[in-house]
Design brief:
The chain has 429 residues and is α/β, with parallel strands linked by helices. It contains 15 helices and 13 strands. The two termini are 22 Å apart.
Length: 429
């Protein structure tokens, strides 16, 4: 396996050079949104300089804008392993899911059943709860095993019935990192004629996505989680999209992209995919490979880098007295998780821990991260939730070590150790 030159890749992310107070800043907030490479910043700025126009005009800037938008759709399709006309672009995954849920719900009848999980982000729960309330549907809950925050297929099988019309599930948990077996879930749902709507927002920065291979009907993601601007994209199976009722203004050409699009964001999305192609080339994708092949190579290499870092992070955190990791903690089972650590520390709220880390130059999230149901089921809803550290391929061993040392000092009720101070000086190496 080709080793990525992480130092070279880090040079492409201007934000990674930030050093407030002279101390290198560590970005472990990736699950909430990653940093972006220079080419994304340049693409957004260049759009405004050379192509800023509305859609469909008979003049040069509009033609340029339309070409960028078309290519951005094609690039996102290659990331998801689907065709360009099956990709819907909008503000973010949540907005697109609410929009599509209305169209899907229009074909459902009172008494029809939908299955939701207790593991998911609210963006793949609340739209369906709203549809259920509007259409008098039956909601069935697929409950996670709270011991390791995983979903068991046997529990899904027990919930499925001839009245099941939709299963909404995440490809990976944004809170605790669990990767779900989407192909097996889709096969089970399709046996009773149900649709499968997959939230791949947390999976997209970490895994090779292939919507066709897993036979999902919808796969939703957000570009700002994989090194691009604030933008969302959804794959929808062509035959299903054609049959859905579309809620749109009459002149709109696209049945599910309503209003004027964020064209500058789509220029940035195209550049984000281009960055991943560059990672694929660095990882050994041969000359003459397709964009899809370069992206598959890139994500495979990224996965290897991230999980090596995650094992280091996990081992460090697991050794801290009073710290409890949530999710899959058996290293032998790490192929079923992303490089995202969620934990609590006895005697400290999640906000206190994240605040202390922030004061020391480490970006970490605390709370429920919109995975409200899971945090409530874990009994942490009224206790401030979890601390979340999310690695991406641009993080380093030195950053992991410094962060672990800081967390250890917090758990011990002390200030930063000498080792943490020293590591802070070399965290960008």
């Amino acid at each position: 396996m080709t080793t990525l030159d992480i130092d070279a890749l880090r040079q492409r992310f201007p934000a990674l050079a930030l050093s407030p107070g002279g101390r290198p800043f560590i970005f472990l907030d990736g699950p909430g949104g990653t940093q972006v490479p220079d080419t994304v910043i340049e693409a957004v700025a260049d759009y405004y300089r050379t192509s800023n126009a509305n859609h469909g005009g008979a003049f040069e800037t509009s033609r340029r804008s339309d070409a960028i938008v078309a290519e951005a759709h094609a690039a996102l399709a290659d990331l998801l392993g689907v065709d360009t006309d099956e990709v819907i672009v909008g503000p973010n995954m949540t907005t697109l899911t609410f929009h599509l849920s209305r169209s899907i719900g229009a074909g459902l009848e009172p008494g029809d059943e939908i299955i939701l999980t207790g593991l998911d982000h609210a963006a793949n729960v609340d739209p369906w709860l709203a549809v259920a309330a509007d259409r008098d549907l039956v909601v069935r809950w697929w409950e996670p095993d709270l011991g390791d925050c995983t979903l068991h297929l046997a529990d899904l099988e027990a919930l499925l019935s001839p009245r099941t019309r939709l299963v909404a599930v995440g490809w990976a948990s944004n809170a605790v990192g669990t990767i779900n077996p989407i192909a097996e879930i889709a096969a089970a749902a399709h046996r009773v004629g149900a649709l499968v709507y997959v939230d791949a927002v947390h999976a997209a920065p970490h895994l090779v996505l292939d919507a066709r291979a897993v036979d999902a009907d919808f796969v939703a993601c957000s570009v700002y989680k994989f090194f691009g601007p604030h933008l969302g994209a959804v794959y929808g199976r062509r035959s299903i999209l054609a049959a859905l009722r579309a809620y749109k203004v009459r002149p709109a050409e696209h049945r599910f992209e309503t209003g004027t699009g964020n064209f500058e964001g789509q220029a940035g999305a195209l550049a984000a995919i281009g960055y991943l192609e560059d990672v694929g080339r660095m990882a050994g994708a041969p000359a003459g490979s397709t964009r899809r092949e370069r992206l598959v190579t890139a994500m495979g290499a990224i996965r290897g880098v991230e999980m090596e870092l995650y094992r280091r992070l996990h081992d460090g955190l697991a050794s801290i007295r009073g710290l409890s990791l949530r999710g899959i903690t058996d290293p032998a089972d790490f192929e079923r998780r992303t490089p995202t650590a969620a934990f609590t520390i006895s005697g400290f709220s999640a906000a206190q821990v994240a605040g202390r880390l922030g004061d020391e130059g480490v970006a970490a999230w605390d709370g429920d991260f919109y995975a409200v149901g899971l945090v409530e089921r874990l009994g942490l809803g009224g206790a401030g939730g979890l601390v979340r550290l999310g690695l991406t391929h641009y993080n380093t061993r030195a950053e992991v070590d410094r962060t672990v040392d800081l967390v250890r000092a917090i758990a011990a009720g002390a200030g930063p150790t000498a080792e943490a101070v020293e590591q802070g000086a070399v965290a960008n190496r």
